[in-house]
Amino acid sequence: MSHAILFSGEEGSGALPQALSLAKYILCSGKKDGGTACGICTSCRKTAQITHPDLHFVVPVNRSGSQSSVRLPVTDDFLDLWRAAYLENPDITEQEWYKKLEIENKQGVIGAAEAGNIIRKLQFRSFEGGARVMIIWLPERMHPSAANKLLKILEEPAPGTYFLLVSHRPDQLLPTIRSRCMPIQVPPKEQRPLGREAYESLENLLDFCLAGKPSGVLEWAEDMASQGRESQKAFIVAAQRILRQYYMIFLGLPRLAFLDQAAETSARRYAVRMSEPFFQKIYEHLNTASARLERNVNAKALFCSLAFDFFLSLQR
Ligand SMILES: [Zn+2]
């Protein structure tokens, strides 16, 4: 594995949590085959809480106006704030972070003092005797003087040291930094494939509807109503995404469904049985169901009504 990896993806793509999962894997002491961390060892638990002593963070920071005369701040000055912010939202945006720092009208920087800090920290052995990971969030905010200081260590870090960079604007990185990292592109969330189970529930319902079996539709609704609120919400969100994929195929634009060959073939079976008015009506019904779920209405009534909306909209 490369010792310097650059995750790039737009804000909200989950690039930062993905870098964290890799860090968790690198630091895990009970790793399994297939690239997954065990999730239960002390290292995994510490990584999840962002308290692992060999997991280091560098993020852009700054001080609000009145305090700017003091020395330039470094990440360690705000470590507790960063931890809390990350745990609250692992996919935190740059502006949300600046809001926490109370510097909303200013930009954060990764300055030369920060680069000095990184080099100093990595001079010593790792605390737990294993690997160590330095996550640099938004390296595009790195001052050129900091970047230049880091070039050598990025190219040849001590054995067991990994740099994981997470950037939303990789084109703004110095080419000298970019060229030293192995790139990993994190696709936007809406282009990422949904799990098989997301399709199954919707396909079950569609099968009953298309076969003209109201008893099956009712059974399906009762099963959905018996599930927890979170999986009910997840079904609605997944159904909206899947129907968007069907709609793209229906329109003859399968590439915009972002599906692989097998998934596209399976989606096509349903898409050809649908119609423009079906898509319009069903989107409305799903939006209504989603809003009603937020208001904690009776789940059985809600899913019965939704399931029969599907059924009726699909009858020709
Ligand atoms: Zn572990």
Q: What are the distinct ligands in this entry?
A: zinc ion
As laid out across the biggest beta sheet, the strand order is 2-3-4-1-5
The amount of beta strand, in percent, is 5-15%
Q: What is the distance, rounded to the nearest whole angstrom, between the alpha carbons of the first and last residues?
A: 56 Å
CATH topology of the largest domain: Rossmann fold
Poorly predicted segments: none
What is the share of helical residues?
40-55%
The name of the CATH architecture of the largest domain is 3-Layer(aba) Sandwich
User: What is the mean predicted local confidence, pLDDT?
Assistant: 90
**What does the radius of gyration come to?**
24 Å
Number of distinct beta strands: 5
CATH superfamily of the largest domain: P-loop containing nucleotide triphosphate hydrolases
Briefly summarize what is shown.
The protein is of the alpha/beta class and 316 residues long. It has helices at residues 15-27, 42-48, 79-88, 94-101, 112-123, 144-155, 175-178, 196-210, 214-225, 229-250, 261-271, 276-294, 299-314, and strands at residues 4-8, 55-58, 132-137, 161-167, 182-185.
